[in-house]
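Per reviewer request, we include the raw input and output of the structure prediction for the construct analysed in the revised manuscript.
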Amino acid sequence: MDEQLLSCHASRVTRHASRVTYMLKTILFLVFFLFLIILNVSCNNSEKKSVLILSLRADPVYLNPVLAHEIPSMMVNQWIFNSLVRLDENLHPVPDLADSWQISEDGKRIVFHLKKNVLWHDGHAFTAEDVKFTLELVLSEKTNTYNRGLFMVDDKPVIARVIDEYTVEIIMAKPFAPLLANLSVLGMVPEHILKDQDVNLSDFNSSPVGTGPFKFKDWKVGELVTLSANDRFFRGKPSLEEVVFRIIPSTEGRLIALETGQIDAGEIPQKDYERMSQLPELNIYRWYDLSYYYLGFDLTNPLFEKKEIRKALNYAVQKEKIISSVLMGYGKVATGPIPYSSWAYSSDVEDYEYNPDMARAIFRHEGWIPGKDGILMRNGKKFSFTIHYGQGSENSEKVCIYIQHFLKEIGVEVKIRPVEFSVLVTEIANPGKFEGILLDWIENPDPDCFVEWGSDQVKHGMNFMSYSNREVDKLLQEARTTMDINRRKELYGKFQKIITEDAPYIFLWYSETMMGVNRRIKNVSKPSPAGLFLEPEKIKVVKGEE
């Protein structure tokens, strides 16, 4: 009886379960069918739209070229803003907002003739007053910018004088060789929006208005920055309808996004170059850019005040091993702050060869003796410091681990601390709140690097390490005010040798950039230190090969 009841109950349960299963299957089928419809509509819509999807390792800090000083901001700003001049593939200045210019015989005056068909994204006309306003804004002591030094000659600011609505003159105390190149990295901003605002706190910094080929549309912090085509762009309507920047903090995440087609272009880590080169959907571009990687020290810290100690740290780090292991050999040992691809780079500068015995000898001479745990001690204090680096960068993490290992071999204790990239730049590098810091630095197209190395740029420029050398100041000032390129190269050669001797950094490598671009993306520029997207309005997305 019990068995019959159980059997009957089991039968009812089975029938009920079958009905439930059938219903669930039906619901799931309907859901899946609906999903396919939505997906199909979405795909059709995306096919109709011409969208370029790029990536950023962090959110921008300022969508304002006057304030921007880090890579994510500059990457987005170049699509929104224009400068008086821009640089071509050979880093030569060519017209942008200016149609033409004339330089006076004494080299102290440049008259720019502006294009007359340029509109701001809100419909206002671009005029000479905007040029004057932008330069005065970047030179104002009230503006929290690192770009002020780019437009100072012998401690005197350049002066912008409006001649008429479409003509502006820039006046300098002395001839200023880097001016055109420096103007190429300064996007013009609208006077009619910012003239009565505190630019440091303005909503403009997160919702900008430019003259460029793309207009700001939306910014979802931590996710996306979206730009839409400027139909009234003065060089013609862009081929793309939108440009989307996806925020992907990790190197691996950006690589997966590129490999799976979630982004259209992205930098390729050296370790993945061979594998990614085999993917049929990607074009791979390689070039030496204007950057270098370095480990910088706070030179006001007693640990790093003495030049000999900094030399010892340089001797202790095997750069070739880092390049071969982390970069798979794709890079060159850095010998100083002038990028390898710059015309001012000097091959006569000798780097510190790997010599841990020399490093130990220097430390002994300076009174540092290994303690019981092997860590160097002097006056009861350990030689121990922390290196900050950008979180999400696989290469940076590996480099820090290598440096930690190399320095431990000579008795130096190193701690490593990853930090969100935007925090690394704005809260650690800028105020100088670090002991050691690992950074990649992109130099301006002109080798003028006064804002990073000038003694008076510790508070007002980008001299984050507090480096000071009066001889360097003189060399850099002369190089800025000398128009003869051969003389400038000679001066920068002397500068590089002094920097190597002073050893304020451990210069690590010059970067060989590897960029993967989906074959659907057409009209990218020829690979050069200037990059691939020099004329954003010409970039287009196609179906298949053309």
